Amino acid sequence: MNSRSNNSTPTPIPDVSFVGATPSSQQMMAAPLGGQGNPQPDKGRSETPRMHMQYPPHAPENDWEAREEMRLRELEEARARAAQMEKTMRWWSDCTANWREKWSKVRNERNKAREENRQLRSKLEATVKEFTKIKREKEELLGDNEQLRKQLALYTHADKDRSSVASASSSGGGSSKSTKSHPERDTPTKVTDSVPEQDKITSDNMDLLDRLLPKKTDSSSGGSSSSGGGGGGKIGHSEKHQHTGAGSNRKYTEEIPSQDASWADQRVLMVQLKLDEAQKTVLAERNEKEQMVKTINKLSTDLTSMKTKYDELKKSKHEALKQLNEVKEIHQDELSRVNMELEDESVSRTTMDRRLADLRAELERLQAENAAEWGKRERLDTEKLALERENKKLKVQITDLEEELERKSQQASAVLDSDMKVLQKDVYEKTKELGDLKHAHAKLKKLLQEKNVDLDHAKRRAEQYELEVKKLRGRVEELKKDLANAEDEVDSQSNLARKLQRNCDELQEQTENLQVQVEHLQTRLRNAANPIFPARKSKSFDPDESAEGIDSDEVED
Protein backbone atom coordinates (compact mmCIF):
# COMPACT_ATOMS: atom_id res chain seq x y z
CA MET A 1 0.00 0.00 0.00
CA ASN A 2 2.86 2.35 0.75
CA SER A 3 4.43 1.73 -2.64
CA ARG A 4 1.11 2.43 -4.35
CA SER A 5 0.39 5.55 -2.31
CA ASN A 6 3.81 6.99 -3.14
CA ASN A 7 3.03 6.96 -6.85
CA SER A 8 1.88 10.16 -8.49
CA THR A 9 -1.36 8.61 -9.86
CA PRO A 10 -3.27 6.65 -7.20
CA THR A 11 -5.03 3.52 -8.34
CA PRO A 12 -8.83 3.64 -8.49
CA ILE A 13 -10.60 1.89 -5.70
CA PRO A 14 -12.96 -0.87 -6.92
CA ASP A 15 -16.43 -0.87 -5.49
CA VAL A 16 -17.32 -4.28 -4.07
CA SER A 17 -20.45 -3.19 -2.32
CA PHE A 18 -22.57 -5.19 -4.74
CA VAL A 19 -20.89 -8.47 -3.66
CA GLY A 20 -23.22 -10.14 -1.23
CA ALA A 21 -25.44 -13.10 -0.60
CA THR A 22 -28.39 -13.60 -2.89
CA PRO A 23 -31.90 -13.90 -1.44
CA SER A 24 -31.80 -17.64 -1.88
CA SER A 25 -28.53 -17.86 0.00
CA GLN A 26 -29.94 -15.60 2.71
CA GLN A 27 -32.98 -17.84 2.96
CA MET A 28 -30.77 -20.90 3.19
CA MET A 29 -28.66 -19.26 5.87
CA ALA A 30 -31.77 -18.18 7.75
CA ALA A 31 -33.61 -21.51 7.45
CA PRO A 32 -32.82 -24.15 10.08
CA LEU A 33 -31.17 -27.20 8.71
CA GLY A 34 -32.46 -29.59 11.33
CA GLY A 35 -36.13 -29.32 10.38
CA GLN A 36 -35.66 -29.96 6.69
CA GLY A 37 -35.07 -33.70 7.01
CA ASN A 38 -38.52 -34.57 8.45
CA PRO A 39 -41.27 -32.58 6.76
CA GLN A 40 -44.87 -33.29 7.78
CA PRO A 41 -46.90 -34.97 5.01
CA ASP A 42 -50.23 -33.69 3.81
CA LYS A 43 -52.97 -36.18 4.76
CA GLY A 44 -55.53 -35.65 2.03
CA ARG A 45 -53.30 -36.17 -0.96
CA SER A 46 -51.54 -39.03 -2.71
CA GLU A 47 -47.85 -39.42 -2.82
CA THR A 48 -46.55 -39.25 -6.38
CA PRO A 49 -49.01 -36.76 -7.90
CA ARG A 50 -48.17 -34.34 -5.11
CA MET A 51 -44.51 -34.56 -5.93
CA HIS A 52 -45.22 -33.80 -9.59
CA MET A 53 -47.33 -30.84 -8.61
CA GLN A 54 -44.60 -29.46 -6.40
CA TYR A 55 -42.00 -29.81 -9.15
CA PRO A 56 -43.50 -28.90 -12.52
CA PRO A 57 -41.54 -29.76 -15.64
CA HIS A 58 -40.91 -26.08 -16.56
CA ALA A 59 -39.21 -25.13 -13.27
CA PRO A 60 -35.60 -25.77 -14.45
CA GLU A 61 -36.16 -23.58 -17.51
CA ASN A 62 -37.44 -20.72 -15.35
CA ASP A 63 -34.47 -21.12 -13.07
CA TRP A 64 -32.14 -21.06 -16.06
CA GLU A 65 -33.75 -17.85 -17.39
CA ALA A 66 -33.53 -16.23 -13.98
CA ARG A 67 -29.90 -17.23 -13.72
CA GLU A 68 -29.21 -15.87 -17.21
CA GLU A 69 -30.88 -12.58 -16.32
CA MET A 70 -28.88 -12.45 -13.11
CA ARG A 71 -25.67 -13.13 -14.98
CA LEU A 72 -26.47 -10.44 -17.59
CA ARG A 73 -27.29 -7.99 -14.83
CA GLU A 74 -24.06 -8.78 -13.02
CA LEU A 75 -22.16 -8.46 -16.30
CA GLU A 76 -23.67 -5.02 -16.86
CA GLU A 77 -22.81 -4.06 -13.30
CA ALA A 78 -19.24 -5.27 -13.83
CA ARG A 79 -19.00 -3.23 -17.04
CA ALA A 80 -20.34 -0.17 -15.23
CA ARG A 81 -17.79 -0.73 -12.46
CA ALA A 82 -15.00 -1.03 -15.03
CA ALA A 83 -16.11 2.18 -16.76
CA GLN A 84 -16.28 3.92 -13.38
CA MET A 85 -12.79 2.68 -12.54
CA GLU A 86 -11.48 3.99 -15.87
CA LYS A 87 -13.12 7.34 -15.20
CA THR A 88 -11.56 7.50 -11.74
CA MET A 89 -8.15 6.66 -13.18
CA ARG A 90 -8.50 9.39 -15.79
CA TRP A 91 -9.67 11.82 -13.14
CA TRP A 92 -6.69 11.02 -10.95
CA SER A 93 -4.29 11.44 -13.89
CA ASP A 94 -5.90 14.79 -14.79
CA CYS A 95 -5.71 15.89 -11.17
CA THR A 96 -2.03 15.00 -10.93
CA ALA A 97 -1.30 16.78 -14.23
CA ASN A 98 -3.17 19.88 -13.03
CA TRP A 99 -1.32 19.82 -9.72
CA ARG A 100 2.01 19.51 -11.50
CA GLU A 101 1.14 22.47 -13.72
CA LYS A 102 0.03 24.50 -10.71
CA TRP A 103 3.19 23.66 -8.79
CA SER A 104 5.35 24.56 -11.79
CA LYS A 105 3.51 27.89 -12.13
CA VAL A 106 3.86 28.60 -8.42
CA ARG A 107 7.55 27.66 -8.54
CA ASN A 108 8.13 29.93 -11.54
CA GLU A 109 6.28 32.79 -9.84
CA ARG A 110 8.30 32.25 -6.68
CA ASN A 111 11.56 32.33 -8.66
CA LYS A 112 10.42 35.48 -10.48
CA ALA A 113 9.50 37.13 -7.18
CA ARG A 114 12.89 36.19 -5.73
CA GLU A 115 14.65 37.58 -8.79
CA GLU A 116 12.66 40.80 -8.63
CA ASN A 117 13.35 41.05 -4.91
CA ARG A 118 17.06 40.56 -5.57
CA GLN A 119 17.03 43.21 -8.30
CA LEU A 120 15.11 45.65 -6.12
CA ARG A 121 17.52 44.99 -3.27
CA SER A 122 20.51 45.66 -5.54
CA LYS A 123 18.82 48.85 -6.79
CA LEU A 124 18.14 49.89 -3.22
CA GLU A 125 21.76 49.28 -2.25
CA ALA A 126 22.93 51.27 -5.29
CA THR A 127 20.58 54.15 -4.42
CA VAL A 128 21.74 54.08 -0.79
CA LYS A 129 25.37 54.19 -1.91
CA GLU A 130 24.63 57.03 -4.32
CA PHE A 131 22.71 58.83 -1.60
CA THR A 132 25.63 58.53 0.82
CA LYS A 133 27.98 59.74 -1.92
CA ILE A 134 25.73 62.71 -2.68
CA LYS A 135 25.44 63.46 1.03
CA ARG A 136 29.22 63.37 1.37
CA GLU A 137 29.60 65.67 -1.64
CA LYS A 138 26.96 67.98 -0.18
CA GLU A 139 28.87 68.15 3.11
CA GLU A 140 32.09 68.86 1.22
CA LEU A 141 30.36 71.61 -0.77
CA LEU A 142 28.96 73.10 2.41
CA GLY A 143 32.47 73.07 3.92
CA ASP A 144 33.86 74.72 0.78
CA ASN A 145 31.12 77.37 0.94
CA GLU A 146 31.98 78.07 4.58
CA GLN A 147 35.67 78.43 3.70
CA LEU A 148 34.81 80.75 0.80
CA ARG A 149 32.62 82.86 3.07
CA LYS A 150 35.46 83.13 5.58
CA GLN A 151 37.91 84.10 2.83
CA LEU A 152 35.47 86.73 1.51
CA ALA A 153 35.07 88.11 5.02
CA LEU A 154 38.87 88.29 5.37
CA TYR A 155 39.17 89.95 1.96
CA THR A 156 36.54 92.58 2.79
CA HIS A 157 38.27 93.27 6.11
CA ALA A 158 41.62 93.58 4.31
CA ASP A 159 40.04 95.94 1.75
CA LYS A 160 38.72 98.14 4.54
CA ASP A 161 42.15 98.22 6.22
CA ARG A 162 43.82 99.00 2.91
CA SER A 163 41.38 101.82 2.14
CA SER A 164 42.05 103.33 5.59
CA VAL A 165 45.81 103.05 5.03
CA ALA A 166 45.48 104.65 1.59
CA SER A 167 43.45 107.55 3.00
CA ALA A 168 46.02 108.04 5.75
CA SER A 169 48.88 108.05 3.23
CA SER A 170 47.03 110.52 0.97
CA SER A 171 46.45 112.90 3.94
CA GLY A 172 50.17 112.65 4.87
CA GLY A 173 51.24 113.47 1.35
CA GLY A 174 48.95 116.57 1.27
CA SER A 175 50.85 118.18 4.20
CA SER A 176 54.07 118.38 2.14
CA LYS A 177 54.61 120.61 -0.86
CA SER A 178 52.20 120.19 -3.74
CA THR A 179 54.92 120.33 -6.43
CA LYS A 180 56.90 117.56 -4.78
CA SER A 181 54.00 115.34 -3.80
CA HIS A 182 52.22 114.98 -7.14
CA PRO A 183 54.18 111.95 -8.36
CA GLU A 184 53.87 110.26 -4.98
CA ARG A 185 50.12 110.96 -4.80
CA ASP A 186 49.59 109.45 -8.22
CA THR A 187 50.57 105.96 -7.13
CA PRO A 188 48.34 105.88 -4.01
CA THR A 189 45.43 107.10 -6.05
CA LYS A 190 46.10 104.36 -8.56
CA VAL A 191 46.27 101.82 -5.82
CA THR A 192 43.13 103.12 -4.12
CA ASP A 193 41.36 103.27 -7.46
CA SER A 194 42.35 99.71 -8.23
CA VAL A 195 41.24 98.43 -4.82
CA PRO A 196 37.50 98.54 -5.33
CA GLU A 197 37.95 97.00 -8.75
CA GLN A 198 40.01 93.99 -7.69
CA ASP A 199 38.87 92.98 -4.15
CA LYS A 200 41.54 90.28 -3.74
CA ILE A 201 44.74 91.58 -2.12
CA THR A 202 46.27 89.33 0.45
CA SER A 203 47.38 90.39 3.91
CA ASP A 204 51.06 90.05 2.92
CA ASN A 205 50.63 92.55 0.06
CA MET A 206 48.80 94.93 2.41
CA ASP A 207 51.68 94.77 4.90
CA LEU A 208 54.15 95.39 2.06
CA LEU A 209 52.21 98.47 0.91
CA ASP A 210 51.95 99.72 4.48
CA ARG A 211 55.73 99.46 4.81
CA LEU A 212 56.46 101.07 1.46
CA LEU A 213 54.10 104.05 1.53
CA PRO A 214 55.66 105.87 4.58
CA LYS A 215 59.13 105.52 3.04
CA LYS A 216 57.82 106.99 -0.17
CA THR A 217 56.32 109.99 1.64
CA ASP A 218 59.62 110.54 3.51
CA SER A 219 61.59 110.55 0.27
CA SER A 220 59.14 113.06 -1.27
CA SER A 221 59.45 115.41 1.82
CA GLY A 222 63.27 115.23 1.54
CA GLY A 223 62.89 116.97 -1.87
CA SER A 224 64.67 114.57 -4.23
CA SER A 225 64.46 116.00 -7.74
CA SER A 226 65.36 112.72 -9.44
CA SER A 227 62.55 110.89 -7.64
CA GLY A 228 60.08 113.53 -8.75
CA GLY A 229 61.38 113.35 -12.35
CA GLY A 230 61.55 109.55 -12.37
CA GLY A 231 58.14 109.23 -10.75
CA GLY A 232 56.67 111.63 -13.26
CA GLY A 233 58.29 109.78 -16.18
CA LYS A 234 57.26 106.25 -15.08
CA ILE A 235 54.10 106.66 -13.07
CA GLY A 236 52.62 110.07 -13.93
CA HIS A 237 51.19 110.50 -17.39
CA SER A 238 50.71 114.34 -17.54
CA GLU A 239 53.20 117.05 -18.68
CA LYS A 240 52.42 119.12 -15.62
CA HIS A 241 53.97 116.53 -13.34
CA GLN A 242 57.07 116.40 -15.53
CA HIS A 243 57.58 120.22 -15.48
CA THR A 244 57.14 120.40 -11.73
CA GLY A 245 59.62 117.53 -11.34
CA ALA A 246 62.20 119.29 -13.56
CA GLY A 247 61.77 122.59 -11.63
CA SER A 248 62.26 120.84 -8.34
CA ASN A 249 65.41 119.14 -9.66
CA ARG A 250 66.94 122.49 -10.71
CA LYS A 251 65.97 124.09 -7.44
CA TYR A 252 67.47 121.49 -5.10
CA THR A 253 70.45 120.32 -7.15
CA GLU A 254 72.95 122.01 -4.95
CA GLU A 255 71.41 120.78 -1.70
CA ILE A 256 70.96 117.06 -2.34
CA PRO A 257 74.08 115.11 -3.05
CA SER A 258 74.34 112.79 -6.03
CA GLN A 259 74.36 109.64 -3.88
CA ASP A 260 71.01 110.47 -2.32
CA ALA A 261 69.53 111.14 -5.76
CA SER A 262 70.69 107.77 -7.10
CA TRP A 263 69.44 106.04 -3.97
CA ALA A 264 66.05 107.74 -4.28
CA ASP A 265 65.83 106.74 -7.94
CA GLN A 266 66.58 103.15 -7.06
CA ARG A 267 64.03 103.30 -4.26
CA VAL A 268 61.38 104.71 -6.56
CA LEU A 269 62.14 102.02 -9.15
CA MET A 270 61.83 99.34 -6.52
CA VAL A 271 58.54 100.78 -5.32
CA GLN A 272 57.29 100.96 -8.89
CA LEU A 273 58.27 97.34 -9.50
CA LYS A 274 56.57 96.28 -6.29
CA LEU A 275 53.46 98.21 -7.26
CA ASP A 276 53.45 96.49 -10.64
CA GLU A 277 53.78 93.15 -8.92
CA ALA A 278 50.95 94.10 -6.57
CA GLN A 279 48.78 95.05 -9.53
CA LYS A 280 49.57 91.71 -11.18
CA THR A 281 48.72 89.85 -8.00
CA VAL A 282 45.49 91.86 -7.69
CA LEU A 283 44.58 90.97 -11.28
CA ALA A 284 45.43 87.32 -10.65
CA GLU A 285 43.37 87.31 -7.47
CA ARG A 286 40.49 88.98 -9.32
CA ASN A 287 40.62 86.22 -11.94
CA GLU A 288 40.80 83.67 -9.17
CA LYS A 289 37.80 85.27 -7.51
CA GLU A 290 35.84 85.15 -10.76
CA GLN A 291 36.79 81.51 -11.18
CA MET A 292 35.76 80.80 -7.61
CA VAL A 293 32.43 82.54 -8.19
CA LYS A 294 31.94 80.42 -11.31
CA THR A 295 32.84 77.28 -9.40
CA ILE A 296 30.44 78.29 -6.61
CA ASN A 297 27.66 78.81 -9.14
CA LYS A 298 28.50 75.52 -10.79
CA LEU A 299 28.57 73.75 -7.44
CA SER A 300 25.24 75.33 -6.50
CA THR A 301 23.70 74.11 -9.77
CA ASP A 302 25.24 70.68 -9.16
CA LEU A 303 23.84 70.76 -5.65
CA THR A 304 20.35 71.56 -6.92
CA SER A 305 20.62 68.82 -9.56
CA MET A 306 21.83 66.41 -6.89
CA LYS A 307 18.90 67.42 -4.69
CA THR A 308 16.46 66.78 -7.52
CA LYS A 309 18.17 63.49 -8.28
CA TYR A 310 18.04 62.60 -4.58
CA ASP A 311 14.32 63.39 -4.51
CA GLU A 312 13.78 61.26 -7.62
CA LEU A 313 15.76 58.42 -6.08
CA LYS A 314 13.76 58.77 -2.89
CA LYS A 315 10.52 58.60 -4.87
CA SER A 316 11.78 55.60 -6.85
CA LYS A 317 12.81 53.99 -3.56
CA HIS A 318 9.32 54.51 -2.14
CA GLU A 319 7.78 53.12 -5.33
CA ALA A 320 10.14 50.14 -5.26
CA LEU A 321 9.28 49.49 -1.60
CA LYS A 322 5.58 49.76 -2.42
CA GLN A 323 5.96 47.34 -5.33
CA LEU A 324 7.99 45.01 -3.10
CA ASN A 325 5.25 45.05 -0.46
CA GLU A 326 2.62 44.38 -3.12
CA VAL A 327 4.67 41.50 -4.50
CA LYS A 328 5.11 40.15 -0.97
CA GLU A 329 1.37 40.33 -0.33
CA ILE A 330 0.61 38.60 -3.64
CA HIS A 331 3.21 35.95 -2.82
CA GLN A 332 1.77 35.41 0.65
CA ASP A 333 -1.76 35.10 -0.77
CA GLU A 334 -0.56 32.62 -3.36
CA LEU A 335 1.29 30.61 -0.69
CA SER A 336 -1.79 30.54 1.54
CA ARG A 337 -3.94 29.43 -1.39
CA VAL A 338 -1.45 26.70 -2.29
CA ASN A 339 -1.30 25.57 1.35
CA MET A 340 -5.10 25.37 1.48
CA GLU A 341 -5.15 23.36 -1.72
CA LEU A 342 -2.48 21.05 -0.31
CA GLU A 343 -4.50 20.59 2.87
CA ASP A 344 -7.60 19.77 0.80
CA GLU A 345 -5.57 17.30 -1.22
CA SER A 346 -4.21 15.67 1.95
CA VAL A 347 -7.75 15.43 3.38
CA SER A 348 -9.04 13.86 0.17
CA ARG A 349 -6.11 11.46 0.18
CA THR A 350 -6.79 10.46 3.79
CA THR A 351 -10.46 9.88 2.91
CA MET A 352 -9.44 7.71 -0.03
CA ASP A 353 -7.07 5.75 2.19
CA ARG A 354 -9.86 5.30 4.73
CA ARG A 355 -12.22 4.13 2.01
CA LEU A 356 -9.58 1.73 0.72
CA ALA A 357 -9.15 0.33 4.23
CA ASP A 358 -12.95 -0.09 4.54
CA LEU A 359 -13.09 -1.87 1.21
CA ARG A 360 -10.26 -4.16 2.24
CA ALA A 361 -12.06 -4.96 5.47
CA GLU A 362 -15.23 -5.69 3.49
CA LEU A 363 -13.24 -7.89 1.12
CA GLU A 364 -11.82 -9.80 4.09
CA ARG A 365 -15.35 -10.17 5.45
CA LEU A 366 -16.55 -11.52 2.11
CA GLN A 367 -13.64 -13.93 2.06
CA ALA A 368 -14.64 -15.11 5.53
CA GLU A 369 -18.25 -15.52 4.33
CA ASN A 370 -16.98 -17.45 1.34
CA ALA A 371 -15.05 -19.76 3.64
CA ALA A 372 -18.20 -20.22 5.73
CA GLU A 373 -20.18 -21.00 2.56
CA TRP A 374 -17.57 -23.55 1.60
CA GLY A 375 -17.97 -25.16 5.01
CA LYS A 376 -21.75 -25.22 4.60
CA ARG A 377 -21.39 -26.70 1.15
CA GLU A 378 -19.19 -29.49 2.50
CA ARG A 379 -21.67 -30.12 5.27
CA LEU A 380 -24.52 -30.26 2.74
CA ASP A 381 -22.50 -32.66 0.61
CA THR A 382 -22.04 -34.94 3.59
CA GLU A 383 -25.77 -34.73 4.36
CA LYS A 384 -26.54 -35.49 0.71
CA LEU A 385 -24.32 -38.56 0.81
CA ALA A 386 -25.99 -39.67 4.02
CA LEU A 387 -29.44 -39.26 2.42
CA GLU A 388 -28.35 -41.23 -0.63
CA ARG A 389 -27.11 -44.02 1.60
CA GLU A 390 -30.44 -44.01 3.42
CA ASN A 391 -32.29 -44.11 0.08
CA LYS A 392 -30.23 -47.09 -0.97
CA LYS A 393 -30.94 -48.80 2.32
CA LEU A 394 -34.65 -48.10 1.92
CA LYS A 395 -34.62 -49.44 -1.63
CA VAL A 396 -32.88 -52.59 -0.42
CA GLN A 397 -35.44 -52.91 2.33
CA ILE A 398 -38.26 -52.43 -0.22
CA THR A 399 -36.87 -55.14 -2.44
CA ASP A 400 -36.49 -57.42 0.56
CA LEU A 401 -40.03 -56.71 1.61
CA GLU A 402 -41.35 -57.35 -1.92
CA GLU A 403 -39.51 -60.67 -2.08
CA GLU A 404 -40.78 -61.59 1.32
CA LEU A 405 -44.29 -60.58 0.27
CA GLU A 406 -44.16 -62.74 -2.82
CA ARG A 407 -42.84 -65.65 -0.83
CA LYS A 408 -45.52 -65.30 1.79
CA SER A 409 -48.24 -64.85 -0.86
CA GLN A 410 -47.25 -68.17 -2.32
CA GLN A 411 -47.42 -69.86 1.09
CA ALA A 412 -50.70 -68.55 2.33
CA SER A 413 -53.03 -66.18 0.67
CA ALA A 414 -55.30 -65.78 3.66
CA VAL A 415 -52.53 -64.95 6.02
CA LEU A 416 -51.06 -62.78 3.41
CA ASP A 417 -54.17 -60.69 3.08
CA SER A 418 -53.88 -59.48 6.63
CA ASP A 419 -50.16 -59.30 6.40
CA MET A 420 -50.52 -57.63 3.04
CA LYS A 421 -52.53 -54.86 4.53
CA VAL A 422 -49.96 -54.38 7.23
CA LEU A 423 -47.21 -54.48 4.70
CA GLN A 424 -49.06 -52.13 2.39
CA LYS A 425 -49.46 -49.80 5.28
CA ASP A 426 -45.80 -50.08 6.04
CA VAL A 427 -44.95 -49.60 2.39
CA TYR A 428 -47.25 -46.61 2.27
CA GLU A 429 -45.48 -45.11 5.23
CA LYS A 430 -42.10 -45.97 3.81
CA THR A 431 -43.00 -44.51 0.42
CA LYS A 432 -44.36 -41.45 2.11
CA GLU A 433 -41.16 -41.08 4.06
CA LEU A 434 -39.25 -41.67 0.86
CA GLY A 435 -41.27 -38.95 -0.91
CA ASP A 436 -40.59 -36.57 1.95
CA LEU A 437 -36.93 -37.44 1.80
CA LYS A 438 -36.88 -36.87 -1.95
CA HIS A 439 -38.66 -33.57 -1.49
CA ALA A 440 -36.14 -32.49 1.16
CA HIS A 441 -33.34 -33.75 -1.05
CA ALA A 442 -34.67 -31.70 -3.99
CA LYS A 443 -34.88 -28.62 -1.79
CA LEU A 444 -31.37 -29.14 -0.52
CA LYS A 445 -30.15 -29.76 -4.05
CA LYS A 446 -31.78 -26.54 -5.25
CA LEU A 447 -30.27 -24.62 -2.36
CA LEU A 448 -26.93 -26.22 -3.09
CA GLN A 449 -27.14 -25.20 -6.75
CA GLU A 450 -28.03 -21.62 -5.79
CA LYS A 451 -25.16 -21.53 -3.35
CA ASN A 452 -22.85 -22.93 -6.00
CA VAL A 453 -24.00 -20.24 -8.44
CA ASP A 454 -23.48 -17.53 -5.83
CA LEU A 455 -20.11 -18.99 -4.98
CA ASP A 456 -19.13 -19.07 -8.65
CA HIS A 457 -20.20 -15.44 -9.03
CA ALA A 458 -18.21 -14.45 -5.97
CA LYS A 459 -15.20 -16.37 -7.26
CA ARG A 460 -15.46 -14.74 -10.66
CA ARG A 461 -15.74 -11.31 -9.12
CA ALA A 462 -12.80 -11.95 -6.81
CA GLU A 463 -10.77 -13.25 -9.74
CA GLN A 464 -11.78 -10.25 -11.82
CA TYR A 465 -10.76 -7.87 -9.06
CA GLU A 466 -7.48 -9.73 -8.59
CA LEU A 467 -6.86 -9.58 -12.35
CA GLU A 468 -7.60 -5.85 -12.36
CA VAL A 469 -5.25 -5.31 -9.43
CA LYS A 470 -2.59 -7.40 -11.15
CA LYS A 471 -3.10 -5.45 -14.36
CA LEU A 472 -2.76 -2.16 -12.53
CA ARG A 473 0.35 -3.36 -10.72
CA GLY A 474 1.77 -4.68 -13.99
CA ARG A 475 0.98 -1.36 -15.62
CA VAL A 476 2.78 0.49 -12.83
CA GLU A 477 5.75 -1.85 -13.15
CA GLU A 478 5.76 -1.38 -16.92
CA LEU A 479 5.69 2.39 -16.48
CA LYS A 480 8.57 2.14 -14.01
CA LYS A 481 10.49 -0.05 -16.44
CA ASP A 482 9.73 2.36 -19.29
CA LEU A 483 10.96 5.24 -17.13
CA ALA A 484 14.15 3.35 -16.27
CA ASN A 485 14.65 2.42 -19.93
CA ALA A 486 14.09 6.03 -20.96
CA GLU A 487 16.62 7.22 -18.39
CA ASP A 488 19.07 4.58 -19.61
CA GLU A 489 18.50 5.69 -23.20
CA VAL A 490 19.05 9.33 -22.21
CA ASP A 491 22.27 8.37 -20.42
CA SER A 492 23.43 6.30 -23.40
CA GLN A 493 22.59 9.14 -25.78
CA SER A 494 24.49 11.63 -23.61
CA ASN A 495 27.47 9.24 -23.42
CA LEU A 496 27.31 8.74 -27.18
CA ALA A 497 27.19 12.51 -27.69
CA ARG A 498 30.23 12.92 -25.42
CA LYS A 499 32.05 10.18 -27.33
CA LEU A 500 31.18 11.78 -30.65
CA GLN A 501 32.33 15.18 -29.37
CA ARG A 502 35.55 13.62 -28.15
CA ASN A 503 36.06 11.87 -31.49
CA CYS A 504 35.31 15.11 -33.30
CA ASP A 505 37.89 16.93 -31.17
CA GLU A 506 40.44 14.19 -31.86
CA LEU A 507 39.69 14.31 -35.60
CA GLN A 508 40.00 18.11 -35.49
CA GLU A 509 43.39 17.79 -33.81
CA GLN A 510 44.43 15.18 -36.38
CA THR A 511 43.31 17.42 -39.24
CA GLU A 512 45.25 20.32 -37.72
CA ASN A 513 48.33 18.12 -37.37
CA LEU A 514 47.91 16.90 -40.95
CA GLN A 515 47.48 20.49 -42.11
CA VAL A 516 50.70 21.45 -40.34
CA GLN A 517 52.45 18.46 -41.93
CA VAL A 518 51.10 19.42 -45.35
CA GLU A 519 52.35 22.97 -44.88
CA HIS A 520 55.76 21.64 -43.85
CA LEU A 521 55.81 19.36 -46.89
CA GLN A 522 54.81 22.24 -49.17
CA THR A 523 57.60 24.40 -47.78
CA ARG A 524 60.04 21.57 -48.22
CA LEU A 525 58.85 21.01 -51.79
CA ARG A 526 59.29 24.71 -52.50
CA ASN A 527 62.77 24.61 -51.04
CA ALA A 528 63.50 21.53 -53.14
CA ALA A 529 62.18 23.29 -56.27
CA ASN A 530 64.59 26.23 -55.79
CA PRO A 531 67.98 26.31 -57.73
CA ILE A 532 70.94 24.38 -56.44
CA PHE A 533 73.24 27.32 -55.70
CA PRO A 534 70.86 29.28 -53.51
CA ALA A 535 70.12 26.07 -51.66
CA ARG A 536 73.82 25.55 -51.02
CA LYS A 537 74.18 29.15 -49.99
CA SER A 538 71.32 28.81 -47.54
CA LYS A 539 72.84 25.57 -46.25
CA SER A 540 76.10 27.34 -45.59
CA PHE A 541 74.40 30.06 -43.55
CA ASP A 542 71.29 28.48 -41.88
CA PRO A 543 71.51 25.05 -40.26
CA ASP A 544 67.70 24.84 -39.83
CA GLU A 545 67.09 25.41 -43.52
CA SER A 546 69.79 22.85 -44.32
CA ALA A 547 67.95 20.34 -42.16
CA GLU A 548 64.68 21.17 -43.96
CA GLY A 549 66.43 20.70 -47.30
CA ILE A 550 67.68 17.31 -46.23
CA ASP A 551 64.14 16.37 -45.17
CA SER A 552 62.75 17.56 -48.51
CA ASP A 553 65.36 15.48 -50.33
CA GLU A 554 64.34 12.49 -48.30
CA VAL A 555 60.69 13.16 -49.16
CA GLU A 556 61.54 13.38 -52.85
CA ASP A 557 63.46 10.09 -52.63
From TrEMBL:
Cellular component GO terms, alphabetical: myosin complex
Protein name in UniProt: Coiled-coil domain-containing protein 102A
UniProt keyword terms in alphabetical order: Coiled coil
Stretches assigned to the Myosin tail domain: 333-525
Residue runs in coiled coils: 275-524
Record InterPro entries: Myosin_tail
Polar residues compositional bias, start-end: 1-10
Stretches for region Disordered: 1-63, 153-258, 528-557
Annotated Basic and acidic residues bias: 197-218
Gene from which this protein is expressed: LOC106179430
Regions of compositional bias (Gly residues) in chain numbering: 225-235
Biased composition (Acidic residues): 543-557
Source organism per UniProt: Lingula anatina (Brachiopod)
